[in-house]
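Build the 3D complex.
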Amino acid sequence: MALSGLEIFKLLPKKNCKECGFPTCLAFAMKVAAGGAEIGKCPYISQEALDKLAEATAPIMKTITIGKGDAEYKLGGETVLFRHEKTFVNRNRFALLLSDSMTDAEIDEKIAHIKNVNYVRIGEEMKIEIVAIKFDSDKDKFISIINKVKDSDLKNAYMLICEKPEVMKEALELVKDEVPVVYGVNKDNFKEMVELVKGTKIPLGLKAANLEELYTLIEEVQKLGHKELILDPGATSIKEVFENAIQIRRINITGNDRTFGYPSVIFANELAKGEKYMEVALGTIFTMKYGSIIVLNDIDYARALALYPLRQNIFTDPQKPMRVEPNIYPINNADENSPVLCTVDFALTYFIVSGEVERSRVPVWMAIPDAGGYSVLTAWAAGKFTASSIAKFIKESGIENKTKSRKLIIPGKVAVLKGDLQENLPDWEIIVGTLEAMEIPKFLRELAG
Amino acid sequence: MFKKSVQKFPGKICEVELGTGEKAIKLGGAQVLPFCSFDGDTGNTPKVGMEIQDIYPEDWIDTLKELYKDVASDPAAWAKFIEDKYAPDFICLRLVGADPNGLDKPVDECAKIAKAVADAITLPLVVAGTGNHEKDGKLFEAVAKELEGKNILLMSAVEDNYKAVAAAGVLAYKHKIGAESSVDINLAKQLNILLSQLGIQNESIVMNVGSAAAGYGYEYVISTMDRIRLAALGQNDKTLQMPIITPVSFETYKIKETVSTESDVPEWGNQEDRAISMEVSTASGVLVSGSDAVILRHPTSVKIIKNLINELSA
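Done.
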């Protein structure tokens, strides 16, 4: 929350020394409040005043960092309830749960699944980012799972789940340099748990029976000086967790209450009760409604292909269209006889068109020139998708070496480009494609004969 | 001090009734955001429909064709089978056979099929067209006439054909119509205003504001729905207070994650699993953003989504 000029003025030494470049301290304070000057320009301001200012101007929700190196992730730091208001900043991360009550075979299988489901989509790595390891009853086994994950070649952040401080202490010893989440802090053990992470940036995962108790617990933990927290909206029913997740975010952001200003963890695995598709449903709604860490029971491509792209969509800037890299993309194993189909680099257009091309089963080279990330008509109107820009791309992209076919299909909506393109690319046969993407499969099948 | 946050709105989503008799359903009625029962009245729980076609579903995934192999060539038998076996809230008959780019069947023939389907079931019926606006205009006129008294939803009227669809569908034969716009709050609003200028009441309109599969520009779908709901409830915008229906399966069965077979992409595993997962994810997302009804294809997706709705509305 921003401070007013007068409030900042009260924190200044009021020497009117002019060293900041302003005639008076009041003028300086006003400028700082308006964002036109840095408070650090005042050479005589006290550390205490600086701290106060930092606190007052800090974001309403704290950003928490977990993991290390390639597996370092930022959580929280959100400023709005809906993505159209302002971008959702830090995407939620998916965790997979292992516990000492699972058999070794089960654990090995899940680790193998984590390794297996790892792919890149629009420049982003899609994988399980966190391994959550839970203590149920067998301490030695719990420790051995942590070691097993450490010794595997997975690159992941850790979440240790355990409510017994003495067991947690031993577990934490193994991975404390990896900045794991220490989950399982409750009203009975919080003093010992805070002691375990004192002086570090290791976040504590807090759980309580209901929101009132959670609120009190946060205040108690903060009093002990630890402010790296992750909140579990608790509860055992889907309805209640949904309500609590929304309440926490709303009380924090619209209610300006920093007590709830932390990222959250949702145990979708427990709520889904072993039902895989329910886990997908819950993974979806809590990606949209305020989960920061979403715990799953297992991972396979069926889950991944739905949940990761969904998340990739939700955490985008509403003011910037998503683009695909301008390039030549082979579809359906395009080869040296396949025709070339050209469209724009607006991600939505690319995905719809490439999806229809895939559906046709006809091998095609997709040529995506730089069209400014606009849709076909917008790019054309903006002069970014023209006969000369398409011709230039065709000549420079190397497509003429990849296929002997000289059929170039352009979107039906820019049929007007045909004449000019034909002049620019005399070796090619310019074919006007369909007006709508859904007509592509039929069109391509007929073209292929 | 901890204090619960309660959000009240001045607006309310209107109620639209579909079907007749005991199995009739009501969409809409909410005065708060989806499933936020802690804020106030969430209205009628969202409804789940199942998609069938007027012609054999050649391009459906194999496991679904196997499931319906005894009935899929007879739409009325297929509808009855679904009503008895899976008990969705409604059935959506998609008249694919009328498509001018496909079989281009005459509209009267398609209307007779729709009638046979409606007569075979007690569930409310939603009839979807081909996506060809000119043909759909004529198609819906014929269907509306043939199914007089059934109180069906004609899905969907678009800016190119809304006059024909609204005149026959609502004014002449008293059905409900879907107002289809493509993922833009202003386009949705504009079409609703045009319909109201023809004298169509909000209570006869369900919006289809467009959809996409999760991962395919889905953020536009979510934000459009969020904004429509916030305008309808928060600003009491009467031109956006109709319930929303989302044909999830129309989109999710087009994308590569769903259509690729196991031999195409062995590493992705079971095709049916992927199809259900994509359908469930896309449907859950639109439900928490404001859809009052979703149309699905796979019985397992229907079961899961009904379960989710029950849990969230408990």
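Chain B has one domain: 15-313.
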